[in-house]
Design goal:
Helix content: under 10%
Number of helices: 0
Strand content: over 45%
Low-confidence stretches: none
Order of helices and strands: EEEEEEEEEE
Length: about 170
Amino acid sequence: MARTRTPVVSGWFTEDAPDGGGFRLLGTRCSACTAVFFPREDAYCRNPHCPGGGELAEVPLSPRGRVWSYTDGRYRPPAPYVSDPAAPWKPYTLVAVELEAEGMVVLGQAAPGVGVADLAVGMEVEVVGGVLNEDARTDGTSGTDGSDRTDGTVWTTWQFRPVGGAE
């Protein structure tokens, strides 16, 4: 059995951008005022200066940006994040990134292995796919290699890593 890859929030990113650009965040752009939104907006333009009458279209956002701010999370987050109270807590790094073309700031976790010591304000980073959590369920049968077969869900999200960082 295979694990199913499922986005944490459907429609906020793609692992295969239409322009061949790989992993990209997805936003929406208003055709009347050209404002871009992330998270996406599908009902109406949130720009108070928009003349109105425009359509909202999905657009892939810049794959790169610059670190605007960063910090480390040293506390166990509340729901809806999944956190096993019996498991040891591992701090994580949060990064606020100003996207290259849009100029908007997007918050996300740093890629595994990237800590606050690896970041600096103004550093160029790129958005990459990552895993927020994995739900695994053993079905009690053995696979061809003798191990227990598991299925479940891999909850995917976006992360940021310094340009030129390891895959």
